[in-house]
Design goal:
The strands form 3 sheets. An 8-stranded parallel beta sheet has the order 5-6-7-8-9-10-11-12. A 3-stranded antiparallel beta sheet has the order 1-2-3. A 3-stranded antiparallel beta sheet has the order 4-14-13, with no helix packed on it. The protein is built from 12 helices and 14 strands. The longest helix has 18 residues. Strand 13 and strand 14 form a beta hairpin. The model has no long low-confidence stretch (mean pLDDT 97). By secondary structure, it is of the alpha/beta class.
């Protein structure tokens, strides 16, 4: 066996700014890993996130630190002990999945004994702006089955109202990205009920979210920043009804599956999410999405130009990548 690992920084410009309570993005910076073995190449992508202390430089350094082990033949199980959960491990793990499938002449779906990814409903995001601008953005996608509304702590009621009025029939996820406190959370409960919100995602900061323990709330609450891997569920299951599985948090599809199955075993609902990324990130996440109650994988939809052959959006329904893009032969 002759295996070679390469890792690089790729940058994708966004078609418009992506604003959340934490800041604004105008480009997606990702790490792309390629594993070549015996003339066959597998790819994976990770999106380092500053919120978790990550950068392109730190992710590339982490990957370089495991180069020798991976090139010597270390697989996905060994990788779990070589790198912590995060974007670097995600990129390598997904490249290993892709490589394994191609070497076996089978798809990732066949390897795990699951159906191939199919067209599914995936949220389209309305980012933070003035309420009239958010309403206009929602009107453009009003026929989508699921809309995710980014809000902050200043006028979330007005922001949500503007979106609901523009899209009266869509299911809604509201995402404050950790910007609320307990007082605002309680004040917003009747607003969320009035506007028929289906899911509230990570309203309080991770860590101080112990205020959610024992809270009876009319809207299901989903953990995002508070949950990364299955070991987090001992605490998270006392505070949330759902968990958001993101491969960049779990550190790959291998750990993402572990988190998803462990959450289901505890009776928790599932959401599959993503960072702003290319379709290379999404192709792997689709295998968790098929298990989920909510899917939010519109990261590549924000790019001016995605990787060739990637996912496509049809008014809030996502089509999987072309055959051969990732995890298929």
């Amino acid at each position: 066996m002759s295996r070679n690992l390469s890792a690089r920084h790729d940058r994708f410009a966004l078609s418009q700014p992506f604003r959340i309570s934490r800041g604004v993005k105008t480009q997606a910076d990702v790490v792309t890993v390629t594993l070549d073995q015996d003339g066959v190449a597998g790819r994976g992508e990770g999106v380092p996130y500053p919120r978790y202390g990550e950068s392109i430089e730190s992710a590339l350094a982490e990957i370089e630190g495991v180069r020798a082990a991976i090139e010597a033949g270390a697989g996905r199980t060994e990788l779990l002990g070589l790198l912590p959960a995060g974007a670097a491990r995600n990129a390598v793990d997904c490249a290993l999945w892709d490589l394994e499938a191609r070497l076996a002449g089978r798809s990732v779906a066949q390897l795990i004994g699951a159906p191939e990814p199919e067209r599914l409903a995936s949220a389209l995001t309305v980012v933070i702006d003035t309420p009239p601008a958010m309403g206009l953005a929602a009107r453009r996608i009003a026929d989508a089955p699921l809309i995710k509304v980014k809000v902050d702590a200043t006028i979330p009621d007005t922001q949500i109202r503007a979106v609901r009025q523009a899209a009266p029939d869509a299911r809604l996820i509201v995402d404050p990205n950790e910007s609320w406190d307990r007082q605002l959370l309680e004040a917003m409960e009747p607003v969320l009920v009035e506007h028929r919100v289906d899911l509230l995602e990570q309203p309080l900061p991770a860590g101080p979210d112990e205020a959610l323990e024992g809270l009876t709330y009319a809207i299901p609450i989903c953990a995002d920043e508070s949950v990364h891997v299955a070991a987090d569920l001992d605490i998270v299951s006392r505070r949330y009804t759902h968990v958001n599985v993101k491969l960049d948090k779990s550190g790959g599809l291998t750990a993402g599956f572990e988190l998803a199955h462990a959450a289901r075993a505890r009776g928790l609902g599932l959401m599959t999410g993503c960072m702003v990324s290319s379709s290379l990130s999404i192709a792997a996440a689709l295998h968790v999405a098929r298990m989920s109650d909510f899917v939010d994988l519109d990261g590549p939809i924000w790019l001016k130009e995605d990787r060739a052959g990637g996912v496509l959006d049809e008014r809030g329904y996502m089509l999987p990548p072309q055959k051969g893009f990732w995890g298929t032969v």
